[in-house]
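During the no-cost extension, the postdoctoral fellow (Dr. R.K.) reprocessed legacy sequence entries with the updated structure-token encoder. One reprocessed record is reproduced below for audit purposes.
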Amino acid sequence: MKSCEVNFDGLVGPTHNYGGLSYGNVASQSNSQQSSNPKEAALQGLAKMKALMEMGFVQGVLAPQERPDVAALRNLGFAGTDAQVIQQAAKQAMPLLVASCSASSMWVANAATVSPSADTFDGRVHFTAANLNCKYHRSIEHPTTSRVLGAMFADQKHFAHHAALPAVAQFGDEGAANHTRFCRDYGEAGVEFFVFGRSAFDTRYPAPQKYPARQTLEASQAVARLHGLRDDGVVYAQQNPAVIDAGVFHNDVIAVGNGEVLFYHEDAFLNTDQMLRELQGKLGKLGGNFQSICVPRAQVGVEDAVRSYLFNSQLLTRADGSMLLIVPEECRANERVWQYLQGLTSSGGLIREVKVFDLKQSMQNGGGPACLRLRVALNETELAAVNPGVIMTAPLYDTLTQWVDKHYRDSLRETDLADPQLLLECRTALDELTQILKLGSVYPFQIN
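Re-encoded structure tokens follow.
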């Protein structure tokens, strides 16, 4: 049965703003308080989705969340009408209002960890929503994320959904941003690769000293158990604490994998040689041929990798088996990174082509092409069971661009978040969006 990997991209929400909320994410902090352009952000993301669809890749859409999250503010003691809650928060605790307005759900690489049916004990595709408990503004996402994923992948015969792990530091889970999968074919059993920043209980693992390690080994192990993964189909690796302290807050900022290939920076991991041998051995037993591409620090330093988001790219397999790398415009603007990429594609190696996309609005808030997509490997039967309303088509692209033009502002600053009208605009837009994507009632304002 034919299988493919579908990229479900996050649709940027109407409250996209530069709140500088993500400590450890250099881009997020350095652009804090600048004026954002939600309309441009959403259209940039949609343009990438359309381009990949036109290249022949199956492309999906994952809806944004309701913001500001008034229910979260009520849980923190603000009361009255929705407008009064927003006004009180703006007056008494502006940072909480900013957090409740974050459009960070656009980076759906953090939405969940996904294991294809070929890997799992019951032959279903398994989803575990990420608790994202390292950052408050992200920790409030998973209830809605679970409802949206449930509406997209509703057939229980093919799809299994797990609640987020306990929202405590010991089980910090950042979803697919620290997870990838290697396989000979998307429909065959593969090796799932979990990367963690620290261990909650085992002091043998070193931890970063400056920035927090968001993913724990224990969270990765729990997800593997929930999904029913075989021991011989899982590899755990520790991220280098030094690169976390350099601004590599997720593994997908320093490495990306696809098919049988891992593209990574020389300084990405601890115990790299041992990790590579384990990946090669386990994939080899499944009939695969694991291959790795190491980017030397002498050619591209960690600082350049973080600034350009070279590794926060999409590594895609074309129909002819060649590999394509989707990178942000910032890679072309960085002389060392662009020189490396030119050499990479001209060498006749595994990666034959690089395509550049303008994702400036997302990049300035700390998320590149890989952050914007959640990968789901599906066979033909499973793909047919996905809610068809979320699969990108030319008519859907046209409808969504018109929807964005109708509902989104072209400028947003922190002071604008205190306007209760923004909540009404967001709810009106999302109510219409759920009809466009055929999601049903997934938002709190639609349910309560």
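The longest helix spans residues 38-54. Residues 22-29 have pLDDT under 50 and may be disordered. The remaining legacy entries will be reprocessed before the final report is submitted.
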